Amino acid sequence: MATSAAKPATSDDLWSDEELAEVRGRLLDEIAELNADVARAEAGLAEGDDSEGAGDDPADAGAKTYEREREIALTLNARDLIAQNERAIARIDAGTYGVCESCHKPIGKERLQAFPRATLCVACKQREERR
Hints:
Layout: H1 17-47, H2 58-94, H3 109-114, H4 122-130
Helix pairs in contact: 1-2
């Protein structure tokens, strides 16, 4: 069985330095926004409510617990997005941005313009999601 070689990049798949700089800027802006969101959420979680549970009826305590867990989940999600953005920037720096990590074929500009953190082409992502 022959192994398939990566298809040659077409002009539609190639990224200019200006395009990469624009993507990098978008990713850095998003990292800054996410870091600010995380800082605000962590400050709110750290402050907490000293009177939590004191005189609360079960519904109030449940609502506070739900909101706290929601804030924690959002903070973890933001941290994950920061890591994904940093990884995309590292791929830009390494010259591997836009190359599928699985099959090593071009991911495609449209996909990366819609989701700049993508590391897999559509076919490999679909295969991964079926597992």
